[in-house]
Task: inverse folding
């Protein structure tokens, strides 16, 4: 009995210790979290991208159809 | 006691006068709204009658090929007007977003705001338009249909000029702020 207790005691103390998993703190940074100051030039470029094309292509199509009348 | 009576009479008279002005104003605006409603109703009935006339005339076209062209053009005109006015509305929305950014920077955008509002009003009015082909005789189909196509072209150009002017007014606001 004493031997059994001894063996158990030994095993408990000699069992390989698993290293505690290292907790690495992770910080997620969203791209929107960093405010980027838009310059007036950026706004100007944005305005240039706004299309104001006319309907000439569509009207040309209608005029082509008209030729058949 | 006499003073109190005079004050009460004066209050009554002023109150009655204000009430009369308010009633007159309400009557005037109601009459205006009724008139406007009637005008819209008349316009719709007129358009409906024109469309019915067009459908009847279209059926009298003997040349099947020409008839199909007339049908196609009728459909295309409505589609083009919708497509173009939708696009212009989108452009004006983008301009409003840009305008907001300029306002956040303290840039004076009053003129640009006015120009955008004017353009949007014109676009809304254009979007509500219905083009109905007026047909006379079969040998005049080209001229008849061509007239409506020309009208659409002219109308869209007029509205597009206002959209361009709105864009230019924003560009001017940026330029002035530099």
Result:
């Amino acid at each position: 009995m004493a031997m059994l207790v001894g063996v158990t005691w030994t095993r408990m103390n000699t069992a390989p210790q698993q290293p505690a998993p290292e907790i690495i703190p992770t910080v997620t940074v969203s791209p929107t979290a960093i405010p980027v100051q838009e310059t007036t030039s950026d706004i100007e470029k944005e305005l240039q991208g706004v299309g104001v094309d006319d309907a000439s292509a569509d009207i040309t199509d209608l005029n082509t159809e008209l030729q058949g009348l | 006691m006499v003073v109190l009576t005079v004050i009460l009479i004066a209050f009554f008279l002023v109150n009655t006068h204000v009430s009369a002005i308010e009633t007159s104003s309400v009557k005037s605006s109601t009459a205006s709204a009724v008139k406007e409603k009637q005008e819209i109703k008349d316009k719709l009935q007129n358009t409906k009658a024109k469309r019915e006339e067009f459908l009847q005339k279209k059926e009298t076209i003997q040349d099947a090929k020409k008839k199909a062209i007339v049908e196609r053009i009728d459909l295309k005109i409505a589609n083009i007007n919708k497509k173009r006015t939708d696009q212009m509305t989108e452009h004006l929305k983008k301009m409003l977003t840009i305008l907001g950014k300029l306002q956040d920077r303290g840039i004076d955008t009053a003129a640009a705001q006015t120009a955008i509002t004017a353009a949007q009003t014109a676009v809304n009015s254009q979007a509500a338009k219905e083009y109905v082909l007026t047909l006379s005789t079969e040998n005049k189909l080209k001229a008849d249909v061509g007239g409506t196509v020309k009208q659409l072209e002219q109308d869209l150009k007029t509205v597009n000029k206002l959209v361009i002017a709105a864009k230019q007014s924003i560009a001017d606001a940026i330029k002035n702020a530099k």
